[in-house]
Write a structure and sequence with these properties.
Blueprint (H helix, E strand, L loop, with lengths): L7 E6 L15 H4 L4 H15 L3 H16 L5 H8 L8 H14 L3 E11 H6 L8 E9 L5 E6 L6 H10 L26 E5 L5 H9 L3 E6 L4 H12 L5 E4 L7 H22 L4
Parallel strand pairs: 1-2, 1-5, 2-3, 5-6, 6-7
Antiparallel strand pairs: 3-4
Helix pairs in contact: 2-3, 5-10
């Protein structure tokens, strides 16, 4: 089956530090289990270094252990309740509608995806959850009572790359390990890499940023303008040519990020028209 002649543009976002100014656990969960953010992450890092373990699995264990010690049941609904407290950068709430409208005016379909090492259940509780075609992120397994019992998905910086290929082929199942590894003709792939825009803030996004950029898409390093370390990281990624662009994490219409994304959409539209001119009916 060939691709729709109306191009689909995929905007793929990291979450913590990209759409939100902090780690999602810091907007209520950490305080509820009796830790300060620094104490929580120090303990998580201690687990990772002491066990020579994944830092993602370590923070999930720390969440599990801290909640149990505090008498808090970890259920989907409790995660989503904490997710409803997540703060967002300026303009994020309005961003999706603006970009969708711009894409529609140019004759393209815009889809939004999350590719995060945070928790899917918390993102699902955020006020922007409904904007995403798919949320690829860490998650827990649950028992018959609805209590979290074990990690189901752990997404570190290299695990993130699998979801880029799934988006490319239109595969939304996290569990799939068959279709994503099959060889497909280009015209079967739902969203070509050159129709992807990857937006992230940190070095854990580098493998995805490099893949998208290498295969003709565009990667943007965002940063909290109030955080000099984050800005320095973005500048380093840009200087090392790991990303195409850098911009403050300001999602308002008059901010640089909107201008960059809309111009990339313009380019995708132009490239698509040229490609179609070269095709024979």
């Amino acid at each position: 089956m060939k691709r729709n002649k109306r191009p689909i543009v995929a905007l793929i976002y990291d979450f913590d530090g990209t759409l939100s100014p902090g780690n999602m656990q810091e907007f209520g969960f950490i305080q509820a289990v009796g830790f300060s953010p620094s104490e929580f992450w120090e303990e998580s890092n201690r687990i990772a270094s002491g066990q020579d373990a994944s830092d993602v699995l370590s923070y999930m264990k720390q969440m599990f252990d801290a909640a149990k010690a505090s008498g808090i049941k970890l259920r989907r609904e409790s995660f989503r309740e904490f997710g409803s407290m997540i703060g967002l950068f300026e303009g994020v709430r309005e961003w999706f509608g603006m970009v969708n409208a711009y894409g529609k005016s140019k004759g393209v379909i815009v889809e939004h995806y999350i590719n995060s090492s945070g928790l899917a259940e918390m993102i699902e509780g955020s006020e922007i959850a409904g904007e995403f075609k798919k949320i690829f992120a860490c998650s827990f397994m649950y028992d018959e009572n609805g209590d979290a019992i074990w990690p189901a998905v752990a997404v570190d910086y290299t695990a993130k790359t699998q979801f880029i290929f799934k988006i490319n082929k239109g595969i939304l199942s996290v569990a799939d390990a068959t279709l994503v590894n099959e060889s497909w003709a280009d015209d079967r792939k739902r969203i070509p890499f050159n129709n992807m825009i990857y937006i992230g803030d940190g070095e854990t996004d580098v493998p995805c940023m490099k893949i998208v950029k290498m295969f003709g898409g565009h990667s943007i390093a965002t940063y909290n303008p109030a955080n000099r370390d984050k800005e320095a990281t973005a500048r380093k990624l840009f200087r090392q040519k790991r990303v195409n662009f850098m911009a403050p994490a300001d999602y308002r219409k008059d901010a640089p990020l909107y201008g960059i994304v809309t111009r990339i959409i313009d380019k995708i539209c132009s490239d698509n028209r040229l490609r179609r001119l070269g095709e024979t009916e």
